[in-house]
Specification:
Two copies of one chain form a homodimer. By secondary structure, chain A is α/β, with parallel strands linked by helices. Chain A has three domains: about 45 residues; about 140 residues, Rossmann fold (3-Layer(aba) Sandwich), CATH 3.40.50.2300; about 140 residues, Response regulator (Rossmann fold). Chain A contains 13 helices and twelve strands. The structure holds a DNA duplex (16 and 16 nucleotides).
Chain lengths: ~350, ~350
DNA sequence: CTGAAAGCGCTTACAG
DNA sequence: CTGAAAGCGCTTACAG
């Protein structure tokens, strides 16, 4: 273990050739006699040679160009505001290395804009791509172009099974729903009804939210069910007026609701309603550490938020792309991040 | 932003001197005329010069020698088994850089051994030290020696206010107790008694555990108290026989216990007891993702475990030492890691 | 007080 | 097919 690192020079002298030749062998640049090649490779293995990254980087002028393609954070949807921070953190750590990152954004609600921006990405001729595959079929098309151009890509937020992605970093959606189910079970008195709300404008997201809801419900399957009715509500127009109307209807019909599970990141909309109506003793469980969600968490209207570490997703995504490009490191393909259970008392350490 | 990085050469030509002189100025190696010095510094600032880490590292042969001083993980106490993993992860990431790490361990239960090993550390003449200051006064003595030798040190697990540490990475102990209190409040039916157990052999740890307990109790101060009695129990001999005896006494006296809070990492001992006695519907909340705790969590005997990310503590500790030594980066002094709320449904993503 | 040169380990033309 | 040399940006003796 204390042997010094082997250098090209060492391999060269042991093989009886020059370092230029060694380099040609190691980089498969051809023009080397079979016999020389074999000998050099043998010695390389014996010496357990790994290149000195410092020298390699110092020499090579060509930087790696990474491109990210993520939804734009908007007034109406601030979930995506954290993702750039993770990328910046990764870039800061990689500062000594020659890497560039170009951030491209698209409109979360527009397939057309997504397709347009995929073209922008391709024009940049990136060495690696970080992608949130919000739109399924459009993402498949884009990824097949990346594959053809031999550009590795990493998914965050979600993944598309049909593509040849380098890695996915993000939530296990089903299981995070199940965690929400467990928390709900713990804090809801027996006999009460449960209200399950899918609240999202983007229909493409439905798949995602459905999986969470399935996970949520799955928790109750094998537990002796101590609750009353499980009421499902889909709200596709998240305008406050519409949310109020929809919830009015439900609460008029059901007077025994004990807990509400909101499968998307807009639980604050439901919390607003609960506050406005002065409804007491209903437990609200939602997702994502948006400012407005956190305000309700601290005020007590929301009991639990489940966090999916958006920053860590993009941070790790950038790192994995770089490690793959610079050292050929093949990352673990599916990296599920921890499902954070966040309350008013520990939220400050998560932000 | 797209301006190329300035090099010594650029500063040299703009200042009308050689790069040797520029280097002398930047490293304060003296022997430079005041006037030259000023000019060089001015240009350096103007060009926004930062040295090329790659070239710096490539040139300098001298590696940084880090030393860690942590308790040994034992059969009886497996809490410390995770800490080395974080350090190894950091070292793997720092592989291209010239850093070494020597791990020194001591007996968690012996001040004498700790003092002995501090001497081992000093003999190694480290460039930086990572330390778990288990024994207060002995740690103060050690740290003052480090200070005298101008060796920076970072605390994990706990910190000693009286010393001049570079950084602390770990839990906010009081607040983590408060989180436990909140969870307890959420899942315990009104009117029930709460049992609070300090279970640890090492008396030095009492301060630590007391703080958690204080945090736990503080949660109930400002909430209208819906619970019955709060029973405190200190068990200093964690032998199973003794634990059984102590708990027998308590349960004989109190028949209305709704939840048990164990302030240390040995909640599995209490869980063992609960299982053996066939006690039902008591909520158990403990700390740390030890194997035996996790087994009880999955089996349902423990409801919540609170995690303090031991791996991340040492990982970040090593990184901060390296960043400080190599780039003079002053880290945030108090880095409180998130307080993880762990249940049977999300535990797998934490291990 | 200052400059010129060697060298860290690698890659990249170029000469043969 | 192979070797010798230049150079990436920095640091470190050495000469003057």
């Amino acid at each position: 273990m204390t042997t010094k690192k082997a250098r090209l020079k060492d391999i060269a002298s042991l093989s009886g050739v020059s370092i230029g030749t060694v380099d040609r062998v190691l980089h498969d640049r051809g023009e080397v006699a079979e016999k020389t090649r074999d000998k050099v490779l043998k010695i390389t293995r014996e010496l357990n040679y790994t290149p000195n990254l410092m020298a390699q980087v110092l020499k090579s002028k060509k930087p790696y160009n990474l491109v990210s393609l993520l939804p734009r954070s908007t007034e109406e949807n601030t979930f995506w505001v954290k993702h750039p921070l993770g990328m910046l953190k990764a870039m800061a750590e990689l500062d000594p290395f020659p890497v560039n990152l170009t951030q491209i954004n698209f409109d979360l609600l527009s397939e057309k804009d997504f397709v347009k921006e995929t073209k922008t990405v391709l024009k940049l001729q990136p060495d690696g791509v970080l992608l949130a595959p919000i739109f399924q079929s459009e993402s498949i098309a884009f990824c097949s172009l990346l594959l053809k151009a031999r550009i590795p890509f990493v998914f965050v937020d979600g993944y598309v099974q049909e593509t040849d992605f380098l890695a996915y970093i993000g939530e296990n959606v089903f299981q995070s729903g199940k965690v929400a189910g467990q928390l709900t079970e713990m804090i809801t008195p027996g006999g009460k009804d449960l209200l399950i709300i899918n609240l999202a404008r983007n229909l493409q997201n439905v798949h995602h939210l459905n999986n969470r809801t399935k996970g949520f419900l799955s928790f109750f399957e094998n537990n002796n069910n101590k609750f009353g009715e499980k009421i499902s509500l889909n709200i596709s127009d998240p305008g406050s007026e519409n949310v109020r109307m929809e919830l009015d209807k439900v609460f008029k019909k059901h007077s025994n609701i004990g807990s509400i599970f909101v499968s998307g990141s807009k639980s604050y909309k439901v919390a607003d309603y609960i506050n406005n109506m002065g409804i007491k003793s209903v437990n609200l469980i939602g997702y994502d550490l948006l400012e407005r969600n956190i305000a309700h968490l601290k005020a007590g209207t929301i009991r639990f938020l489940i966090g999916q570490r958006p920053e860590e997703q993009t941070y790790k995504g950038v790192k994995k792309l770089f490690d793959f490009l610079s050292s050929n490191k093949i990352p673990e393909k599916m990296e599920y991040l921890p499902i954070d259970v966040v309350t008013s008392e520990n939220v400050d350490f998560f932000i």
